[in-house]
Amino acid sequence: MKSVALILIDPQVGFCSPLGSLGLLHGADELREIEAVVPKIRQALSESARRHLVLSEYSVGQFTEGDVEHPLSNLCVPKINDDCRVIEQLAAQSYSSSTVKHEQSAIASADFCLEIEHDLKVGIKCFVLAGFLFEHCVQSTAVDLFAKLLKEGVEVVIARDLVASRSKKYLDGTVNSVFNKLAGQGLKISNWQSIHP
Q1: pLDDT tens track for 58-67
Q2: What's phi and psi for 145, nearest 5 deg?
Q3: Given this model, what pLDDT does residue 1 score?
Q4: Which end of the chain is more exposed for a tag (fewer CB within 10 A), N or C?
Q5: Residues 6+ apart with CB under 8 A from 23
Q6: pLDDT at 159 over 90
Q7: Residue of 151, 57, 45 whose CA lies nearest to 91
């Protein structure tokens, strides 16, 4: 497994806890798929030699078109609430790096890109994406990372069993649609145990 790096995106209170902005707006039931994936991520982290943590810090109203009264206007805004904190189940893990992004895609973070370049130099051949929310930050990062590494001879894989979103996004077909779209763009989608037998 020395040639594999696991990239964990946004395991934060704002996205994953009933007490975060997303949970307070949509209710705890909407986080069931997310909560079910967390123990699987913890296990995968324990099996990975290279583990990258990517966190979000946004500005007020960044995803509400500037509407500061919207319930999600303070989503992962530092020092306003607990949204930016890593959820307890994954906070104690040891990570090879921890970087902060201010956009949906981690590729927008120069520090994250430096970590990827370092991984290439030490022989990483496969980058596996895990985390939340699948159809937003995970998708954006996967697409951009795939484009960035297209000529490097390495794989970018989305671990189907290590990503999740709100329950509604499964029921309305969004999650399945995004998986199909990403596969159509050439991204590899696989379960963790297939990547790490």
Answers
A1: 999 999 999 9
A2: -70, -40
A3: 56
A4: C
A5: 16, 17, 30, 31
A6: yes
A7: 45
Dihedral of alpha carbons 83, 85, 88, 91, sign? positive
Beta strands in 80-197 (DSSP E): 97-101, 126-131, 155-163, 188-190
Q: Give the integer Cα–Cα distance in Å for 167 and 159.
A: 18
126 in Cβ contact with 115 (< 8 Å): no
Tell me whether residue 196 is exposed, middle or buried, using C-beta atoms within 10 angstroms of its C-beta: 0 to 12, 13 to 18, 19 or more.
Answer: middle
User: Tens of pLDDT along 95-111?
Assistant: 999 999 999 999 999 99
Rounded to the nearest 10 degrees, how much is the dihedral formed by the CA atoms of 17, 97, 162, 5?
A: 180
pLDDT at 42 over 60: yes
The number of C-alpha atoms within 13 Å of 42 and in the hemisphere containing its C-beta is 14
Instruction: Identify the H or E element spanning 54.
Output: strand 50-56
Bridge partners of 129? 7, 158
